[in-house]
Design brief:
This protein is about 45% helix and about 15% strand. It has helices spanning about 15-30, 50-65, 75, 85-90, 105-115, 130-145, 160-170, 190-200, 210-215, 235-240, 250, 275-280, 285-305; strands at about 40-45, 65-70, 95-100, 120, 150-155, 175-180, 205-210, 220-225, 260-265. The chain is globular, with a radius of gyration of 19 Å. Bound molecules: norvaline. Keywords: Cytoplasm, Transferase. InterPro entries: Asp/Orn_carbamoyltranf_P-bd (IPR006132), Asp/Orn_carbamoylTrfase (IPR006130), Asp/Orn_carbamoylTrfase_sf (IPR036901), Asp_carbamoyltransf_Asp/Orn-bd (IPR006131), Orn/put_carbamltrans (IPR002292), OTCase_ArgI (IPR024904). It catalyses: carbamoyl phosphate + L-ornithine = L-citrulline + phosphate + H(+).
């Protein structure tokens, strides 16, 4: 069976740690691995807007001595001009791996079913697992560990980042708190799966409504845009719904004194976070953005090694 990375719990706790270890090694020595030497091509299909993802995968594949091939989703029109299974078989017969940023998680799963090569989730409506590898690498760099740390996520509890924090944080043995209004609860099946993982790793997951309580004593405070890509029409309604969930200096003061602040970016200063916090001394967002590169290189190298000798490619 070809292995893919479609959601954060597609890797075990041991595998997640292995990928993060490799990412740290590749950060220290950027050209230490060349699994795509040949070179082999990796398709990067971008249906939604992208800056960090396109940059870090393009640079990463190049540094692994492969050839990145950027597919403009607007031109390819996957799912309308051609079906996902047809596209999967056309591209999958020519490339070493497919990286796809799209809307529906079910389309990504269909791509994986038909591609015959590893498929990587570069963000869907439901998950953003590559971002979480970068976040965990960043937290580990600044805190020296992951297991046992408390991470508080404030904002939209039903979006891709909240879901990925639940799954990836639980896998890492962290205590993940989702702090969100009642109308924006995480998906129950994802919350249940995160709780199941946390029970085995020694972590925990919880959903809280009150920001001050949610951030109290946290080692890591994170947030995300209140209106994700595809939700632009809801921007004003969401600004009302999430008023009070802004990460301010006052809120950071309720967290641990040495707490760090993360944001996957792009950030909307004055909405989900103040400029004082995101541009202040506790913010590690530039390390986090850089770590997309190292984490994804490690993921690609690890996934291709895992699939070496696979029979259905
Ligand atoms: N939740 C955000 C993440 C951006 C990286 C979005 O989907 O737009």
């Amino acid at each position: 069976m070809t292995r893919h990375f479609l959601r954060d719990d597609d890797v075990t706790p041991a595998e997640q740690a292995e990928i993060l270890d490799l990412a740290a090694r590749l950060k220290a020595d950027r050209f230490a691995a060349a699994p795509l030497a040949g070179p082999q091509t990796v398709a990067l299909i971008m249906d939604k807007p992208t800056l960090r993802t396109q940059t870090s995968f393009t640079v990463g594949v190049t540094e692994l001595q492969g050839a990145p091939f950027l597919v403009d989703g607007a031109k390819a029109q996957i799912g309308t001009r051609e079906s996902v299974p047809d596209v999967a078989r056309i591209i999958g017969r020519q490339v070493a791996a497919i990286v796809w940023r799209t809307y529906a998680q079910s389309d990504l799963e269909t791509m994986a079913q038909y591609a015959g090569v590893p498929v990587i989730n570069a963000l869907t409506d439901d998950f953003h697992p590559c971002q979480l590898l970068a976040d965990l690498l960043t937290i580990r760099e600044h805190k020296g560990t992951l297991a046992g740390l408390t991470l508080s996520y404030l904002g939209d509890g039903a979006n891709n980042m909240a879901h990925s924090y639940l799954l990836a944080g639980a896998t890492a043995g962290m205590n993940v708190r989702i702090v969100t209004p009642a109308a924006y609860q995480p998906r129950q099946d994802i919350l249940a799966e995160a709780a199941r993982i946390a029970a085995a790793t020694g972590g925990s997951v919880s959903v809280l409504a009150e920001p001050g309580e949610g951030a109290a004593g946290a080692d890591v405070v994170v947030t995300d845009t209140w209106a994700s890509m595809g939700q632009e029409d809801e921007k004003e309604a969401r600004a009302v719904a999430f008023a009070g969930y802004t990460v301010t200096a006052e809120l950071m003061a309720t967290a641990a004194p040495d707490a760090i602040f993360l944001h996957c970016l792009p950030a909307y200063r004055g909405y989900e976070v103040t400029a004082e916090v995101i541009d202040g001394p506790q913010s590690v967002i530039w390390d986090e953005a850089e770590n997309r590169l190292h984490a994804q290189k490690a993921l690609l190298a690890w996934l291709l090694a895992e699939n070496e000798g696979g029979t259905d490619a």
